[in-house]
Amino acid sequence: MARFLVTGGAGYVGSHLVALLAAQGAEVVVFDSLRQGHRAAVPAGARLVVADLADAGALDATLADGPYDAVFHFAALSLVGESMAQPMRYLLDNAALGMRLIDACIRHGVPRFILSSTANLFGLPDSVPIAEDARIAPASPYGESKLMIERALFWADQLHGLRSACLRYFNAAGADPAGSLGEDHDPETHLIPLVIDAALGRRPPITVFGTDYPTLDGTCIRDYVHVTDLGHAHLCALRQLDRRSVTYNLGNGQGHSVREVIASVERVLGRPVPAVFGDRRAGDPPVLVASSERIKHEAGWSPQFADLDSIVGTAARWRVAHPSGYGSG
In three state form, how does the secondary structure of 236-266 look? Predict the structure, then answer.
């Protein structure tokens, strides 16, 4: 039986990956501080270790209770704006603790490591869609912290043979189609759940930042990829590590504007979305869309939830059924 350690496995993307691993019959150990994750998001059958990566003793004890076929690393601070206000906190919590985890994996003989990285590495891109060899210029300390981990993994492979996959997400969205898992952040910063909550009357009208971008409707365009599709991408990347380390961009390959997201939520819920229009936010590029051709060609990955209404539909069903997130019911 395959055995995996998933840091941050009680969080949004991590919990969806844990559910896929468990459904395949794997033994899964989740290592999560529950600062951002939720105990209820860990499926039955997975073992939860409640500890922080800063707790070197707990980390060593967990890895010593191996062997593990791979470590999936999701645990991280992830608010871009907060990282601009607290850069050293992000570099320490994400980069330094990520390197500590890599070092512990090397010492305990873990052969494979899969990193939840970010499209924030690309900053303001020179061209779109964004391929893996695009210019790296992190737009925030958060993006910088992920780049530092990617570089540490490069050297871990070169000098210790730890094969790794760096998966650069664009915009994770949606919820488990079966309805058991969803998005529950505090504070919530992602556009789709914010628009859904505005439509449901659970928050003030959504603010659209900028309507004069050089796009068809004047609002920013982003690439939304379903969280379950992200989980499957991790499994595809894991298989590639039998041969070599890999780096993949993960997105749908097509973008949707803010206005299109609002229209999708209105179609799915059958009710209007109250919105107000504001000025542009500093640093927001007009278009961010991924090229995921490399992982499609090399690993056979293809998004199952490619259209926006399907993504929004799963997110909306979760939020309607769980008005207080994992605290509901």
Answer: HHHHHCCCCCEEEEECCCCCEEHHHHHHHHH
